[in-house]
Amino acid sequence: MRMIWKLVMYSLIVSLFIANIPQKVEASVSVSAASAVLIEQKSGRILYEKDAHTKRRIASITKIMTAKLAIESGKMNEYVKVSEQATRAEGSSVYLKPGEKIKLKDLVYGLMLRSGNDTAVAIAEYVGGSVEGFAYLMNQKAKQIGMLNTHFSNPHGLDDHEDHYSTAYDMAVLMRYAMKDKTFKKISGTKVYRAPNPTEDWDRVWKNKNRLLTKYKYTTGGKTGYTKRAKRTLVTTATKGDM
After folding, report:
1. SS (H, E, C) the chain
2. β-strand 192-195 against 231-238: which pairing, if any?
3. Is 6 one of the annotated active-site residues of the chain?
4. Do residues 114 and 209 touch, judged by C-beta distance below 8 A?
């Protein structure tokens, strides 16, 4: 009887302990972003949020989805012939040349480290058959992983469509999914990458635009973004201890 009573008391104490674990952490400083969310990687639990479900333009953090689909295609070691259309992409670029052949893996590094819009189009055309076909794959994947307030119209995030948007929460869901992939995690956290340059005597050397990788030692990956309409966007991952 005494043993049963002890077990009951132990169970009650454990239950009370679990019940008192804070479900959210109050931010000690203000967050300047219009929308933000902080989630825990393993459980997906929301630790902090601010207007996290409002649909907004997302700029180049779009490329997280582009990179993940490229990796999932299973063609990372295959060569991609770069089209004229890819080289004409506006904005940030790794300066691909029409007709050059480059590994899909190298395109993904150029996409994630230098935010190359030319690499985004080249990836989309190779993996999806066309930019439109790739956007279809992007939206399929978004629904599959639970991005309920997201719609992709291109692989790079440029403001060339009105129906290209997501939310802070949905982008956190995407990054949590992507970071479970060892290849994506490695690429996302790479500070410098050297890619062969088939038409020159020198290699391409790309430094990651995500300055948090060098300024905050716990950073493990992420993607930056900017357009005039979206303003600055950011998805970042970090690990400290078991969190």
Report:
1. CHHHHHHHHHHHHHHHHHHCCCCCCCCCCCCCCCCEEEECCCCCCEEEEECCCCCECCHHHHHHHHHHHHHHCCCCCCEEECCHHHHCCCCCCCCCCCCCEEEHHHHHHHHHHHCCHHHHHHHHHHHHCCHHHHHHHHHHHHHHHCCCCCECCCCCCCCCCCCCEECHHHHHHHHHHHCCCHHHHHHHCCCEEEECCCCCCCCEEEECCCCHHHHCCCEEEEEEEEECCCEEEEEEEECCCCC
2. unpaired
3. no
4. yes
Chain segment 100-143, per-residue pLDDT in tens:
999 999 999 999 999 999 999 999 999 999 999 999 999 999 99
Predicted TM-score of the model (pTM) = 0.88
115 is catalytic: yes
60 is catalytic: yes
- 92, 93, 115, 188: the catalytic one is 115
Catalytic annotation, pick one of 35, 60, 153, 188: 60
Q: What is the mean pLDDT of residues 201-213?
A: 94
Q: How many Å apart are CA 124 and CA 216, to the nearest integer?
A: 32
pLDDT above 60 for 47: yes
Nearest to 243 by CA among 50, 28, 39, 64: 39
